[in-house]
Design brief:
single chain; mainly alpha; Neurolysin, domain 3; 2 domains; 3-stranded mixed β-sheet; 21 helices; 3 strands; 3% strand
Length: 503
């Protein structure tokens, strides 16, 4: 059995390497590749994807998994060996249903669509992007046909990002959120003038923004020998291994917020991948357990840490020194209120903590309508704009700041968006546990000390990678399933204090 296990691990390591090369090519496409490289890059990525898929779904892997099943079941459930056999089996059963040519075509089409989306966004031309989006959607329908129908067709897509979760569950979670958030946002809206965020706008040279951001994320755990920070159109995090972490951000010379909080967000993703145990490297276990848990980490570092008073008691004097013309006459409390201003806005990744989830609900609903055949893609911009007006009270001026703002649909990532709200909720559940386990945690923030939190997260979540299902990981870290209660309590306490609302 040991020899068979080593053979399985060796085969899986080769497949893992191919997949990670694909990730590096994707990172390069979105950061450094010349635009005319898109067509060749799409073919390269399609070839890699097809070869990796065919190697993984071959009969030899299936035979090894069958032979190793009794061995895995004889070992402790949380051992690396049992976990590898168990997780690889589930992945193999799922991947086996998808033809290699379909997998390659999905990769090729997404790579081509990404380049067109970038141009369409730049020119605010949805019509340019629509045919490519249609191809992505058509391929998703072919992909869904590979699986037994779940309770809803959308379940198949959701499972790619949040294993085992059903659309109905997400719908209920978002309804629970909406029930508490809508009146909170309305109450804050009546006191909108209580907070002024004008100090966040002005002239902020990019090189100074980058230097300041690096000063923050290095304290979180960014290390120059194993991390990169690069600019891109739509920020993301990627990696080729736990010791090769690629994060990205975007800079606006007239607005400081995106670089600050976007960089902290992507660092949270990077810390998760960087914290996976080295013992799991070059295996299917070597990444986060789910996108919801991944987003819990990015949203925690962005918001629970990065928008807190203790955090800025340490960093605000440094920000004043970096941009004295903007902040010399703005005290720390005014700045704290400014970065936590609640104000309906156009762009999801720049939204405040309260209204952010309305952006997600909008996308979640539109995706289901597309999949259920209730919404034609030609009507998507109009439907988007109508919901923005209904949910956030904002008129969308153009498609670049509307339906074209996110990269996800160009990548074929339908089923992804809900994980952002799940991450918001989970982040507060984990945060409550961390604060209990680490007395004086936020006192350390005032001194610029974040290693206590990082190491606690690494020990309790990050190091396990995919050894456990999302449900199992939640049970281990917070003791139960997703619960909106901690997140709602956090928002009401924080924003109630800023806006003078009664809890």
């Amino acid at each position: 059995m040991e020899a068979k296990y080593n053979e399985l691990r060796s085969r899986l390591a080769e497949i893992h390497d191919l997949n990670k090369v694909g990730w590096v090519l994707s990172w390069d496409q979105r950061t450094m590749m010349p635009p005319k490289g898109a067509k060749a890059r799409a073919e390269q990525m399609a070839t890699l994807g097809r070869v990796a898929h065919e190697k993984f779904t071959g009969d030899d892997i299936g035979r090894l998994l069958d032979e190793l099943r009794p061995y895995g079941e004889s070992l402790p459930y949380d051992s690396n060996e049992a976990s590898l056999i168990r997780v690889a089996r589930r992945d193999w059963d799922k991947a086996r249903r998808v033809p290699g040519d379909l997998r390659a075509e999905m990769t090729r089409t997404a790579a081509l669509a990404n380049a067109v989306w970038a141009e369409a966004r730049k020119t605010s031309n949805f019509g340019l992007f629509q045919p490519h989006l249609q191809k992505n959607v058509d391929l998703k329908f072919r992909y869904m046909e590979c699986f037994d129908e779940g309770d809803e067709p959308y379940d198949v897509l959701l499972d790619d990002y949040e294993q085992g979760m059903k659309t109905a569950q997400v719908r209920q979670v978002l309804e629970d959120l909406k029930r508490d958030l809508v009146p909170l946002i309305a109450a804050i809206g009546e006191r909108a003038d209580a907070v002024d965020n004008a100090c966040m706008y002005g002239h902020f040279p990019v090189e100074k923004q980058r230097a300041f951001v690096l000063g923050i994320i290095r304290r979180f755990g960014f290390a120059d020998e194993s991390w990169r920070l690069d600019p891109t159109v739509h920020p993301f995090a990627s990696n080729s291994s736990p010791s090769d972490i690629r994060i990205t951000t975007r800079y606006y010379e007239n607005y400081l917020g995106p670089a600050l909080f976007g960089s902290m967000h992507e660092t949270g993703h990077g810390l998760y991948e960087n914290g996976v145990s080295p013992d799991l490297e070059r295996t299917p276990l070597c990444r986060g357990a789910s996108l919801g848990l991944h987003e819990s980490q990015s949203r925690m570092w962005e918001n629970l840490v990065g928008r807190s008073r203790p955090f800025w008691q340490h960093f605000y004097p440094q920000l004043q020194a970096a941009f004295p013309e903007h902040f010399a006459k703005v005290d720390a409390e005014a700045f704290y209120r400014a970065i936590n201003k609640v104000e309906p806005s156009l762009i999801r990744v720049e939204a405040d903590e309260a209204t952010y989830n309305l952006h997600i609900i909008l996308r979640f609903e539109l995706e289901q309508e597309i999949i259920n055949g209730k919404l034609k893609l030609g009507d998507l911009p109009e439907a988007w704009n109508a919901r923005m007006k209904d949910y956030l009270g904002i008129a969308v001026p153009d498609d670049a700041r509307g339906v074209l703002q996110d990269i996800h649909w160009s990548a074929g990532s339908l089923g992804y968006f809900a994980t952002y709200s799940l991450g918001n909720i989970i982040s507060c559940q984990i945060w409550e546990k961390a604060r209990t386990a680490l007395p004086g945690l936020e006192d350390g923030f005032e001194q610029g000390e974040f290693m206590g939190l990082r190491e606690w997260l690494r020990e309790n979540l990050h190091r396990h990678g995919r050894k456990f299902t999302p449900t199992e990981a939640m049970e281990r870290v917070v003791g139960g399933p997703i619960d909106v209660g901690p997140y709602v309590r956090y928002l009401k306490a924080k924003l109630g204090g800023i806006y003078g609302l009664e809890n």
